[in-house]
Amino acid sequence: MKHYDKIFLIVAIMILCASGAFYHLNKSTISATKSDTDKILALDPKGEKWQNKDISISAEEALEWPAVKPQDDRGLWLFQVFTPPKIWLDSKGNFIAEPPYKTEGEKKAFNLIFGEIVTAIYPIRYSGYTPPFISLTDTRNNAVYMGKINEEITKEVLDNGAAKKMAMGLIIRSFNTKRELDKTQNVYIDYVTITIEDKNLGKTVTIYSDKPTPLPDERLMLIKSSSDAKFKWTFKSVGESITSGSFKYTVKEMDMDKEYAVIDQYKDGALVKTVKVSASGNTNIFPQE
């Protein structure tokens, strides 16, 4: 046996002897500690006792972070509190604020939709007769005109402070009445037929009493609003305009037969959008989708 092996053996024997001596000297203390520990563990726990309780678990529900809303009328700058503005790159690598896809904000910014093609109603209606004058009403402005047969109707306007007669382009060519018995009320009613030469339309129109008079060869395009049920815009030619809210809309192109109109949207004189409004839906032309 080598000398370092002897050293390890002597150290091991010394540790073993020390352990035995420590146990022998502390045997009574260890026994007392174990006895005290057993007594403590045998005691009942203090405080409220544990109980099994049923816990209802609600059904799982998928939640999504709400989409960022646009902060301008054009639907370009999309950001909220704690959310930085969204910025995109165009095809040339330039930064742009307008997303390359349609956003809810863009759809709401242009809310005009196609309604229908309607037959125009002649605005002039019969409103009364006091010989030799015939009273007509223009439903566009509720103006009342008094006319005689074969005489052009005029109205007075001010020209540099002086009254002046202005021709209205309307000439009553015939006036006929027909009395018929209304059997439901057992009374006689006078039905009136009036023929009017309308120089503004370039045609002769026949109206009946105070009933609306359709113009079969005159058609109008009706445009509605997806956000305002009261909004109605009818037009028949390119260049007609209407103002709604802070926007102005102008007809750029239209086709009655194909049921579409291209409409420019302006704000503060600047072009915002150009949209093709048709029976099949809206198509954004400018800015390009």
Q: Which sheet architecture does the biggest sheet show?
A: 5 strands, antiparallel
How far apart, in Å, are the first and last alpha carbons? 94 Å
Question: Which assembly state applies to the chains in this document?
Answer: single chain
Q: How many strands appear in the DSSP assignment?
A: 17
Proportion in helices? 10-25%
How would you explain this protein's 3D organization?
This protein is 16% helix and 46% strand. It is an alpha+beta fold. A hairpin with a 2-residue loop joins strand 13 (241-244) and strand 14.
How would you summarize what this structure contains?
The protein has 289 residues and is α+β, with helices and mostly antiparallel strands.
Helices and strands, with pairings:
Elements lengths: L2 H40 L45 E2 L5 E2 L7 H6 L2 E11 L1 E7 L2 E6 L4 E5 L4 E8 L2 E21 L4 E12 L4 E6 L4 E13 L6 E4 L5 E4 L2 E9 L4 E8 L2 E9 L2 E6 L3
Antiparallel strand pairs: 1-2, 3-11, 4-5, 5-6, 7-8, 8-9, 9-10, 11-12, 13-14, 14-15, 15-16, 16-17
Give structural attributes.
single chain, alpha+beta, 2 helices, 5-stranded antiparallel β-sheet, 289 residues
